[in-house]
Amino acid sequence: MATDQKRRIAELKLKAALCRKNVLRMIRAGGHGHVGGAFSAMDIVTALYFDKMNIDPKDPKNPDRDRFLLSAGHKCLCQYAALAEKGFFEKEILDTYGALGSHIPGHPDMHKLTGVEANTGALGHGMSIANGMAAAAKLDGKSYCVYTVTGDGELPEGSNWEAAAAAAKFKLDNLTVFVDNNGLQISGKVTDVMNMEPIDKKFETFGWAVRTIDGNNMEEIVETLDALPFEEGKPSCVVMKTVKAKGLPFGENNAAFHFWNCTPELLDEANAALDEQIGMLEKELEELK
Length: 289
Ligand SMILES: Cc1ncc(C[n+]2csc(CCOP(=O)(O)OP(=O)(O)O)c2C)c(N)n1
Ligand SMILES: [Mg+2]
Prior knowledge:
By secondary structure, the protein is of the alpha/beta class. It contains 10 helices and 9 strands. The chain has one domain: Rossmann fold (3-Layer(aba) Sandwich). The chain has helices spanning 3-30, 35-40, 42-52, 76-86, 126-140, 159-169, 190-194, 199-205, 218-226, 264-287, and strands at 32-33, 67-70, 146-151, 175-181, 184-185, 188-189, 209-214, 236-241, 260-261. The strands form 3 sheets. It has a 5-stranded parallel beta sheet with strand order 2-3-4-8-7, with helices on both faces. A two-stranded antiparallel sheet has the order 1-9. Thiamine diphosphate binds at residues 36-37, 72, 74-75, 121-124, 151-154, 182, 184-186, 190, 244, 258.
């Protein structure tokens, strides 16, 4: 791999680790939070905010900006973490998580935080909103793209499949849906609660261009983002195999960490693991200079 590409990937891994620390900071402030889904989706959200999307925290309403929609709104800590790291708001605001009147409530609210494009949290609506934004770009002759992250436990919501049919009909190749396929939802295995596999074949049958990747592997993520749109005239779907609570040393792939009532001791342990990772990545970047 060329040195530039190695540096690009190491920088993104470093950003993802810093963003995971932002998530822990919010959870410490609030005493709890949806860590599982925030950590499984953190790598794709980092790559979108720091490598892919045309967005500027100094000009957040630019009509030509790319749009990001977190359909699975309960994962909002990963979006807040990225917005803070990108400079959309002061990091002190992270310490207001869980407080009455906070700009960063338990689900994203576009009226409270600049950079949030729509209110989400009631599962199943992000894809429809994203469709509307992508269709508007086509109608207005604009070249911005729309990206949305949905969860595997969110896919049983029927509205997703109305949106999937419409996106293909209207040839929304400026739309990409990332399925955070961590295998778990609020109460256990997605395949036990409502089996939606094979997710890739379902989207393909609806007329989408689909790829399956390791959604916690930055190299694969970057390659995939570089390849968008996968096919002219078709919306793109990335089925991301991920690990719920990825990066939480004691919580990975454990449905009990869907929503975490934290303890200071375990928060310290999680921060220490991330600090170690950050140290190694900084060293790697130093060597790549
Ligand atoms: C319409 C609706 N029904 C139920 C819920 C409650 N709920 C919140 S998160 C969640 C599970 C979502 O699972 P998944 O999409 O796999 O996300 P993950 O837990 O992996 O982050 C549920 C059912 C909701 N937010 N909205
Ligand atoms: Mg899930």
